[in-house]
Amino acid sequence: MKLYAERVKTLDWVAKTTWEVEDHAYEPKRKVHNKGSRNYPHLIGSFYSTKNLRPVEYESLNERMFYYFLEVDRGVIRYYVQPIRVPMKTDDDEWYHVPDVLVFRQGYCPLLYQIKESEQDNLEPKTVLCNTECEAIAIAYGWNYNVVFPKSLPSPLPRNVNLMAGYLRTRKYYSEWQDQVINRLRNIGPCTVDQLSSSFIDSVDPLHIKPLVFYLMAKGNFLVDVTQTINSNSVININPEMKSVFSIIES
Which of 182, 201, 202, 242 is a good FRET partner for 107, with 20 to 30 A between their CA atoms? Predict the structure, then answer.
């Protein structure tokens, strides 16, 4: 692990040409199950990650929310769920704890996260021990460790994250219109989603363009105020520096 820790000093994850080593090292260390929510089977599931180009499994809606956040954060280059086993030991027991996700974000050392429901959950003795050991192993590997509470995100951010994550999948016709839509917004300046879509009415049904506009918002080509509910009346503009509209670092 020492050699890997030396490599992360560059923090330039975009420049990585292959993730084969990480894909193998951080493959999920346990299977998703509904042990903690057997009465709510709908809480577990999976979705296709456009960042990792493969399915990502989750064990709660809280986890899914955070993984969606990773999907729409332009700074996140790759992430791995249930990536490592952390040895735990008390006077009465020994076991392995598996933290939730390891995130590679451009310009940052790897970020190891534990996802919790609430601050109260984080105070339980077993959780305190897990946090202590996870932080220690993160320091040893040259990572950072943090506990996050997605449910504490201010409204309407969770709704906006869910909405944008749903538009990340591309459609075949997007390539035909994408440059035209970007150039149109660049020419006319800030406007609403509806106004930009309707500006193509002489060429195509605006309802054909609107999903592409939301897709370009989700991908970061367009700026939008994420502190307000995102909808067809949201004002959008070109994102010249392609900065991340949604950021796990700033939220």
Answer: 182
pLDDT tens for 140-156 read: 999 999 999 999 999 99
Rounded to two decimals, what is the model's pTM? 0.90
- The DSSP H or E segment spanning 144 is strand 144-148
Fold observed for domain 2-152: Trna Endonuclease; Chain: A, domain 1 (3.40.1350)
Mean pLDDT of 165-194: 97
Strands 222-224 and 235-238 turn out to be antiparallel
State the residue for tokens 């199950």: 33
How is residue 33 written in tokens? 């199950």
pLDDT of residue 5: 42
Phi, then psi, of 71 in degrees rounded to 5: -65, -35
Render pLDDT for 61-90 as a digit per residue (tens, 0 to 9).
999 999 999 999 999 999 999 999 999 999
Taking phi over 0 as left and psi of -120 to 50 as alpha, with beta for the rest, 46 belongs to beta
Query: Boundaries of CATH 3.40.1350.10 in the chain?
Result: 2-152
99 and 84 Cβ atoms separated by less than 8 Å: yes
Q: In whole numbers, what is the pLDDT of the chain averaged over residues?
A: 91
CA 214 to CA 224: how far, in whole Å? 10
Nearest-angstrom CA–CA distance, 73 and 125: 32
